[in-house]
Design goal:
transmembrane; mainly alpha; transmembrane helix; SMIM5/18/22; single chain; Small integral membrane protein 22 isoform X2; membrane
């Protein structure tokens, strides 16, 4: 039971600290905190943009594949090894 009481006190202290920072409008203590948050937001935006592009590619690819496409020509692969010929 003591562990639950300690956890409650710790959560309450953390909530009070966060609310205090919100009231004072000083969410970050230094410019490094602000820079790290901006970098995190840029990273998150990039990931979301890439996911959006993947979704668009998947949706558009299924639409575009129905169009008449040119048949692929078969090209020989590799290099002939003339040393193996008799």
């Amino acid at each position: 039971m003591d562990l639950a009481g300690d956890l409650d006190k710790e959560l309450e202290a953390t909530a009070q600290e966060v609310l205090g920072k919100l009231r004072s409008r000083e969410l970050f203590q230094s410019t490094w905190d602000t820079a790290a948050f901006i970098i995190f937001l840029i990273f998150l935006g990039t990931v979301l943009l890439l996911l959006l592009l993947v979704c668009i590619h998947c949706c558009c690819h299924s639409c575009c594949s129905r169009r008449a496409s040119r048949p692929q020509k078969e090209r020989p692969r590799g290099v002939d090894n003339l040393a193996l010929e008799p």
